[in-house]
Amino acid sequence: METKQIIKTLSFFGILFFAVLINPAESYGRTWVDAQGNVTLTNSPDSVVVVPAGTATAEKHSTIYNGNLTINAGVTLQLSQYSVFHFCSGYSITVNGYITVPAHDNRRIVKQCLPTSCGAGAYVDSYGRCWRAASIGANNNCTNVCTAAGATCVEFADASYNDDSNCSICKYFHPDWLACKTLGPNNPSYLPYFYNYLGSYKECTRRNDAPQYIATCGNTANQYTARLCVCSK
Amino acid sequence: MLVSLLATGAYYFLETGFIYQVFYPIKHKATIEDHVFSDRAVVFSVSGPAGTFPVFEKELVVDPFTEVKTGDKQYFSVWVKDDEGIEKVSAKTKTDSEVFQFDLYLVEGDNKEGRWLGGWEVKDISPQKDYITDLTAYSKTGEITTVGNSWKSAER
């Protein structure tokens, strides 16, 4: 056995010894469901913070950050599958690390708009606040969208490849304890119902013979593009 | 034990610069390039800090992401950009008792902006548990950046 291989083999047991001493197991994931106040995510104990519910495949629950959010370098904020992420306007988000979002769930990123203007496409929650879908497409960058909506910008990667602008598969979000209902451009209930800052929702799928609408969102050049399918059941 | 610890130090300096590696990589580039993502793959949109390099961008694909079992060949695909060029991209997964590391291969684009793909054979995991894989890009100028991904093992 050559020297290098011997060293390699011996180091295996050496590091196992260290691993047991220094880094006991059970250090994976954390739970974030309702963050009130400023939050800074650091890479201790983990390099990845999964929201919500501390698991990468969480059920359909939502997360609210109601305060300034800072993601330090070396940290990844990973949105779990089937979750909804809310970031309240008026606060800043600083990304020195990364945010990763399941691509087909990009449209589930929503942000709070100015409470005085709940226009078409916005949703009023149980606290009287307005929420607007803000899925970012190829030709409307986040800054433009957020300026138009009077919201704080959260920059995400181009999501055009998963935006279903034709509404070929049209679904919307709905409180999970209520039956799906008829929706329209001014009556979108695709966002979760909130109580005490926590939400849970289900997806409703439109009937094949039902009309459907496409919610649009304008940028600062008054160019409106399809953003989110708004369907009727 | 003392010999083991000394060997660990030697290995650290001689081989990798990382604390520990056990290689179970999928080594052949041709095998990597031929990989077709399965229905258990999940695509993540990636958003990183603006104006800093290297930077992960566009998308990160983890296959399989769900129901991961021992013996699965798990692949990671990620886009990386750096104006000065990327030296290498590697992945590190902390399992129940070990740390596994493997390199990713450039399979699309070039080393200034390209897609890197690599994989490993899953070992040393327990049912229904979350694990983290850190992907690190090294630029030719010595800068590094890391994006993590948490994935879940199967029920059994």
Topology:
The complex is a heterodimer of chains A (233) and B (156).
Chain A: H1 3-22, E1 34-36, E2 39-41, E3 48-51, E4 62-66, E5 69-71, E6 76-79, E7 84-87, E8 93-95, E9 98-102, E10 109-112, E11 122-124, E12 130-133, H2 142-149, E13 171-175, E14 193-195, E15 198-205, E16 212-218, E17 224-231
Parallel strand pairs in A: 1-4, 2-5, 3-6, 4-7, 5-8, 6-9, 7-10
Antiparallel strand pairs in A: 10-12, 11-12, 13-15, 14-15, 16-17
Chain B: H1 2-16, H2 29-33, E1 42-47, E2 55-63, E3 73-81, E4 86-94, E5 99-110, E6 113-121, E7 130-139, E8 144-152
Antiparallel strand pairs in B: 1-2, 2-3, 3-6, 4-5, 4-7, 5-6, 7-8
Describe this structure as you would to a colleague.
The complex is a heterodimer of chains A (233) and B (156). Chain A has a 6-stranded mixed sheet with strand order 1-4-7-10-12-11, with no helix packed on it. Mean pLDDT of chain A is 49; it is low at 6-34, 106-170, 183-200 and 206-233. Helix content of chain A is 12%, strand content 33%. With 233 residues, chain A is mainly beta. Chain A is elongated, with a radius of gyration of 21 Å. Chain A has one domain (34-231). Chain A has helices spanning 3-22, 142-149, and strands at residues 34-36, 39-41, 48-51, 62-66, 69-71, 76-79, 84-87, 93-95, 98-102, 109-112, 122-124, 130-133, 171-175, 193-195, 198-205, 212-218, 224-231. With 156 residues, chain B is mostly beta strands. Chain B contains 2 helices and 8 strands. In chain B, strands 1-2-3-6-5-4-7-8 form an 8-stranded antiparallel sheet. In chain B, strand 4 and strand 5 (99-110) form a beta hairpin. Chain B has one domain (20-152): Immunoglobulin-like, CATH 2.60.40.10. The chains are: A mainly beta (233), B mainly beta (156). At the A-B interface, helix 1 and strand 9 of A face helix 1, strand 1, strand 2, strand 7 and strand 8 of B. Strand 9 of chain A pairs antiparallel with strand 1 of chain B, so a sheet runs across the interface.
